[in-house]
Amino acid sequence: MDSLPLDGITVVALEQAVAAPLATRHLADMGARVIKIERVGEGDFARHYDDAVHGLATHFVWLNRGKESFALDVATERGRDLLRRLVARADVFVQNLAPGSAERLGFGAETLRAEHPELVVVNMSGYGSSGPYRDRKAYDMLVQAEAGLISVTGTEADAAKTGVPSSDIAAGMYALTSILAALLRRATTGAGATISVSMFDATVEWMGHPMYMRLYGDRQIARAGVGHAAIVPYDRYPTKDGEILIGVQNDRGWKALVERVFERPDLAEDQRYATNIARVRARDEVDALVGDMARQYTTAELDARLAAAGIPAAEIRDLAGVVEHPQLAARDRWRTVDTEVGPVQGLLPPMTFDDVEMAMGDVPSLGQHNDTILAELGE
Predict the structure, then answer these.
(1) DSSP string, 46-93
(2) Alpha carbons 120 and 221: distance in angstroms, whole number
(3) Helices and strands (H and E) in the chain: how many
(4) What is the pLDDT tens value at each position of the chain, 379 positions in all?
(5) H/E element holding 114?
(6) So what's the architecture of 234-315 in CATH?
(7) The architecture CATH gives domain 10-206+331-376
(8) Quick one: how far is CA 177 from the chain centroid?
(9) Taking Cα atoms as reference points, which of 134, 125, 131, 140 lies closest to residue 174?
(10) Which residues are paired to 106 by β-bridges?
(11) CA-to-CA dists, residue 96 to 13, 249, 315, 351, angstroms
């Protein structure tokens, strides 16, 4: 078998920025034809975030490979007519315009589903289509703040947002999974679906542990840097020549750490540290003990000892270290993707099928596919 999972599926995406383009890029990777509707002249504003990829924007290159770009003015009757005709041929319609915009243009879910009951319509938003926050600006940083993510990220001294657009990514992945589920259901029932995904809902879903601590533990978990609010030892520790992350998930792991790695069996029996609950209560003391023992070894030595004992550990890599990561090289994860300015590197999608490699199509220039799409529509 060499067909991609979504061969034959057509997606029309009235999209911009990160959340919706991430969902549809994964659909393209899996073989769907994705027609990206862009503003005439300007295109998706993510095209202009930076120019780091030989003059192209990093976000756009990351999120839009494998798509067809159709530059269309949907403010005009002709533009809306062309879009209606495209949607009539599609299996999925995705939009992440400001709340109410799709409806005003005539592309609300109720209208589209009445005309095309088999269509899967996906509305993506910042805070949802109702409620007092419906019309608020919903940039990733702002949603992280409203959803509580910033309150648990960073150090005791300073809160921080995550270093990648977590709220956008969360919404994009929930949109992706819901589209796949809707297509699966349609294959057996023939019925389409109307799906709503908000960045806020997606991010709050990710807040399960701290949320339950607030609901039932009656406390706000502390910001712990790279540490963990509920597990100890689980942090960065100094070595002779640097530092290493150590994550002990359970009491067996603690016993293995102190006995097999640090050769301190007395600590395994010490009731002050024998259980994770006890270690959390004595966090500063435990972290100091582990740090003192870790300093006896170089990072490479300690990493080897931890691996031999089955203790989870990791180097803290910068992005140069990730690009050159031996795991990516050993598993042949890099591929070449074409763009209007020449080839660039890209990573294979995370989903790996054993019978077919996911598609990694070109990154389109603005309006690159206008002539092809117009010809298909008889224009």
Answers:
(1) GGGS--TBTTB-HHHHHH-TTEEEEE--TTSHHHHHHHHHHHHT-SEE
(2) 40
(3) 17, 11
(4) 579 999 999 999 999 999 999 999 999 999 999 999 999 999 999 999 999 999 999 999 999 999 999 999 999 999 999 999 999 999 999 999 988 999 999 999 999 999 999 999 999 999 998 999 999 989 999 999 999 999 999 988 999 999 999 999 999 999 999 999 999 999 999 999 999 999 999 999 999 989 998 999 888 988 888 888 789 999 999 999 999 999 998 999 999 999 999 999 999 989 999 999 999 999 999 999 999 999 999 999 999 999 999 999 998 888 999 999 999 999 999 999 999 999 999 999 999 999 999 999 999 999 999 999 999 999 8
(5) helix 109-115
(6) 2-Layer Sandwich (3.30)
(7) 3-Layer(aba) Sandwich (3.40)
(8) 12
(9) 125
(10) none
(11) 9, 39, 38, 24
Quote the Cα angle for 273-275-278, to 5°.
Answer: 60
Task: Give the span between the Cα atoms of 79 and 71, in whole angstroms.
Answer: 9
Stated as kind and residue range, the H or E segment containing 345 is: strand 344-347
| C-alpha to C-alpha distance for 44 and 38, rounded to whole angstroms | 6
| pTM as predicted | 0.90
Task: Give the 3-state secondary structure of residue 124.
Answer: strand
The three-class DSSP label of residue 293 is: helix
Burial class from Cβ neighbours inside 10 Å (0-12, 13-18, 19+) for residue 51 reads: exposed
123 neighbors 109 (Cβ within 8 angstroms): yes
List Cα–Cα distances, 61 to 40, 55, 67, 113, 220, in angstroms: 19, 11, 11, 32, 38
Active site residues: 228
Q: CATH 3.40.50.10540 region(s) of the chain?
A: 10-206+331-376
Chain-centroid distance of CA 253 in Å reads: 30
Please tell me the distance from the alpha carbon of residue 342 to that of residue 281, in angstroms, as a whole number: 56
Residue extent(s) of CATH 3.30.1540.10 domains in the chain:
234-315
Query: What angle, rounded to 10 degrees, do the helices at 19-29 and 166-189 form?
Result: 50
| Cα(51)–Cα(60) distance, integer angstroms | 10
What is the separation of C-alpha 200 from the centre of its chain, rounded to a whole number of angstroms? Answer: 14
